Each structure stands twice: as C-alpha cells, then as structure tokens.
Amino acid sequence: VQLVESGGGLVQPGGSLRLSCAVSGFTFSSYDMSWYRQAPGKERELVAVISSAGGSTSYADSVKGRFTISRDNAKNTVYLQMNSLKPEDTAVYYCRAVRYSSVSIPYIYWGQGTQVTVSS
To answer: Which of 14, 17, 109, 115 suits 83 as a labelling partner, its CA being 20 to 30 A distant?
Structure first.
C-alpha cells in the first residue's frame, strides 16, 4: 500500500497550490479520501473529505470557499486545490484513505505528507 503526496512547496500569501495523492496497493474507488494537516506544535486536523465515488465533499470551516477536494478514480489520485492561501495554512498536509468493513472495522492508510509553507 502506498499513498504518495506531491505538490507542496513555498507560496506567497494569496497564492495557490494543488496537492496530489497518488495511491496504489488497494482499491482506491472503495475508499473515502481525506486531507489532513498538521502545523508545528498543533494537533493534526481534518481539512477536507470526499466520498468514494466523489459525490460528497465536506470541508473544515477554516478552508471553506478556498480549498477544493476532488478525485480521479481512473488515476487512483485525490487532489486538493488550495487558493487564497494564508500563512496559517502552513503545515504538513497528509492524505488518508478509509473504508469500513461490513462489521464497521475501519481500514485506514496514511501518506507520508507534503510540506506547504505560505510566507512572503
């Protein structure tokens, strides 16, 4: 199982980045996908979620209207388009895959993370 994030980097406030998370080793289309982030000294927090078929999304209040999560099940990839970036968006961003068995046992996989730094 591999989840490989890419697309992070240094960007000025107000700028944009698109993160990608390429998945292999499991049936991507069966998993809900999420982006989390963790800033220095803070707990990891949920940023955005997309359902397995892509029909449902949700966002943290702090990123609503600025970030968009999407997925391409043919490419086994989930994306996070980040616009109007703020210094407080600086964090390591992680993708997560989750599905639940018929008896509600969770199967969870995490990526290694990609650094996003918003600074002038």
So the answer is: 109
